[in-house]
Amino acid sequence: MQCAKNGQLQPFLHFAQCILLYLLMFGATDLLHHYFKTGNVYLESLISIQAMEKLSLQYRSLANNNLQSLPKDVFKGLDSLTNVDLRGNAFHCDCKLKWLVEWLDKTNATVEQIHCESPPEYKGRKINSLTAKDFDCITTEFAAYKSLPYQSLSVDTFTYMNDEYVVIAQPFTGKCMFLEWDHVEMSFRNYDNITGTSTVVCKPIVIEKQLYVIVAQLFGGSHIYKRDIFANKFIKIQDIEILKIRKPNDIETFRIEENWYFVVADSSKAGFTTIYKWNGNGFYSHQSVHAWYRDTDVEYLELTNKPHLILSSSSQRPIIYQWNKKSNEFAKHTEIPDTEDVYAVKHFTVKDDVYLCLTRFIGDSRVIKWEGGSDFREIQRMPSRGSMVFQPIEINNHKYAILGSDYSFTQVYHWDSEKGMFVKFQELNIQAPRSFTHVSIDKRDFLFASSFKGTTQIYEHVIIDLSA
Ligand SMILES: *[C@@H]1O[C@H](CO)[C@@H](O)[C@H](O)[C@H]1NC(C)=O
Ligand SMILES: *[C@@H]1O[C@H](CO)[C@@H](O)[C@H](O)[C@H]1NC(C)=O
Ligand SMILES: [Ca+2]
């Protein structure tokens, strides 16, 4: 029941109820009894609820009520309180009571000593010995935002002409579908498409304000497109050698000393994983690193300021290549030991430490820490059931790792910096997920989850204050 609206009281019939409710709400049953016994209810003289608050409600007792919590703002506006008795209750000291701790800290009223009854770690603690810092009330969640009615493989985000875009590879319609953010409607809308066949990866790369898109296809070869600003469309500028790239599975882009590169992992037996370099007019093959291995994934990262590539293959352990400054090429550096059947490797950092998420289709996916050189230490294992992606993601200082599954729920893990490992966080229902991509627009954070068999899902990363 709303008793006051815009400072005005509701009609008189409500008014009497409001007074009653008000007194009951604050447990001022003594006052209530007193007023009704003596018939001393000066309704007419009460102009507003605020006026009543300023009346003589200086002493407030909520003692011996077995209360576990108190509604927030129960004392709001009661500036004249001088005594509050909350003894004899069974307070549950969780986020819902955080406001009381803050209020106790700043009120001038005398409050009798009170204690927490629960949770166990706080049982017997004096409530006024707690501080707001004792309550960890901020949590996050990936909340369903929208589903897009098509299957997808790669999802990438990029900034172009000061706007944020998303490009999604649709294998069955053969499209690279571009989405842009509508700042007025606050939603994603179609921007343009590049139409082809069996598209597996659409990789954007912006070089000197010019947008290029590497479109990898299983059939009909792979191509490079350029955004033509004047014609306002994508035009094909280049084909990628069909002899080297037969069955592309993954593409990464990177920059080493002012030069732009991309690398295509090729998963056919006769293909070559190849690095291409931008020469000002087009991309030219720079180095083929791996032949005959059926590479499923490539990862680019820098370790002690040196560029590295990690290649995952279905036929052998992940191989790490290191950039050689003299030859301007990658050279084999080491391999990750004791790791068979790794489908993909992705890295993340915690302070200066580099960690790797290793995806395995069946068995256990793993998190390992790179201790320099050829030394790795296992941090933890996660059971995998048909996993094709294990993606680390950082959103506003929260670190996650998302393990997709073809046979069960996708598991979101959250990094626990005290434990130095991931802990279970949330389950998502996505059919055959293939990539997870963080898209940050207008101070909002989205997670795009591609799906090979169902609909592409968008989640919004939301922050929840449990004390609110
Ligand atoms: C407590 O008393 C001080 C000094 O009289 C005053 O400045 C302050 O506003 C009071 N605080 C509250 C919450 O009423
Ligand atoms: C891109 O494709 C979608 C459907 O797949 C269509 O609705 C949209 O109009 C296309 N956009 C352009 C610019 O052609
Ligand atoms: Ca990759």
From TrEMBL:
SMART domains: LRRCT (SM00082). Keywords: Cytoplasm, Glycoprotein, Leucine-rich repeat, Membrane, Repeat, Signal, Transmembrane, Transmembrane helix. It is found in: Cytoplasm. Its main location: cytoplasm. Residues 89-138 form the LRRCT domain. The keyword ATP-binding does not apply. The keyword Transmembrane helix applies. PROSITE patterns: EAR. This is Leucine-rich glioma-inactivated protein 1 isoform X3. GO terms for cellular component: cytoplasm; extracellular space. The chain crosses the membrane at residues 12-36.
